[in-house]
Amino acid sequence: MKGAEVLNISQLEVFLRTVELGSLTKAAAKLNYTQSGISHTIKSMETKYETTLLIRDRSGVRLTSAGRELLPYMQAAFSSHRLLMEKVQEMHRMESGLIRVGTFTSVSSQWLPGIIQKFKADYPKVHFELLHGNNDEIEHGIASGRLDCGFMKLPAAENLHTIFLRRDPMVVVLSEDHPFAEKASFPVKALEQFPYIEIDEVIENEITRVFSEHHIRPDVHYTQKDDYAVIAMVEKDLGITLLPELVLKDSVRTVVCRQLTVPSFRDIGIASTGENPASGLTSAFLRCTQEWVEEEYGRQL
């Protein structure tokens, strides 16, 4: 049967626009066809389906009963094709581009290399611009459009869209020779009983919160700007320190990490603008980040 032949999208567009405008002449002008071209296209469709779709008279055109019955299916087919083409174009646009990501030290060193490697397997031409900062700076960067997304300690500002990624325990870092190195956990009050090595950077916010909640006054002997320098000093038994566990991941230093007897955590997430949907490229990066974190920590269980 001729009706089994597939109509092309151009024919559907001609038919739908003619029905919409109610005139062969108006459809021809709108689609940059000749009137005979419009008429020939519709006649070709009617031949394929072995039925009359339009009645033509001096007032214009109107649907036959068969045309009315087939119209919603033609509209659905044309709409589906349009959505398909939009998706293909979006994918082509995503083949290259720039993603601007806000981040902080431990995520930059422990997560981002793996996440970017996974992402670039699908989008090899995409480039990244990484900007380091604290929560306030990253929030402002996203809100102002300077950043497409950013890793943050949750909760974040209410006007941002956030995705929870990982609960990161706070751990006490000790030398192998420390008296508590063999213990299962570290007493909270003992934080003020040993020489303490303080880190002087934005990560201090989580650490001072622990001290404040438990009314701890650490005996600070040293202050360092870099967390990895702090770990090196702990290794030499110069003191203890409190850090998020992520900072210690894959550390080459020989140290012991113990959670507090009253566990404390920081929640890490990734944020994007909450007012407008993230771009296709940014959305793909957010999904990739979620998948990578789930895969990475799933393997460790």
TrEMBL record:
<dbReference type="InterPro" id="IPR036390">
    <property type="entry name" value="WH_DNA-bd_sf"/>
</dbReference>
<dbReference type="GO" id="GO:0003677">
    <property type="term" value="F:DNA binding"/>
</dbReference>
<dbReference type="GO" id="GO:0003700">
    <property type="term" value="F:DNA-binding transcription factor activity"/>
</dbReference>
<dbReference type="Pfam" id="PF03466">
    <property type="entry name" value="LysR_substrate"/>
</dbReference>
<dbReference type="GO" id="GO:0005829">
    <property type="term" value="C:cytosol"/>
</dbReference>
<keyword id="KW-0805">Transcription regulation</keyword>
<comment type="similarity">
    <text>Belongs to the LysR transcriptional regulatory family.</text>
</comment>
<dbReference type="InterPro" id="IPR036388">
    <property type="entry name" value="WH-like_DNA-bd_sf"/>
</dbReference>
<dbReference type="InterPro" id="IPR050950">
    <property type="entry name" value="HTH-type_LysR_regulators"/>
</dbReference>
<protein>
    <submittedName>
        <fullName>LysR family transcriptional regulator</fullName>
    </submittedName>
</protein>
<dbReference type="InterPro" id="IPR005119">
    <property type="entry name" value="LysR_subst-bd"/>
</dbReference>
<dbReference type="Pfam" id="PF00126">
    <property type="entry name" value="HTH_1"/>
</dbReference>
<dbReference type="InterPro" id="IPR000847">
    <property type="entry name" value="LysR_HTH_N"/>
</dbReference>
<keyword id="KW-0804">Transcription</keyword>
<feature type="domain" description="HTH lysR-type">
    <location>
        <begin position="7"/>
        <end position="64"/>
    </location>
</feature>
<keyword id="KW-0238">DNA-binding</keyword>
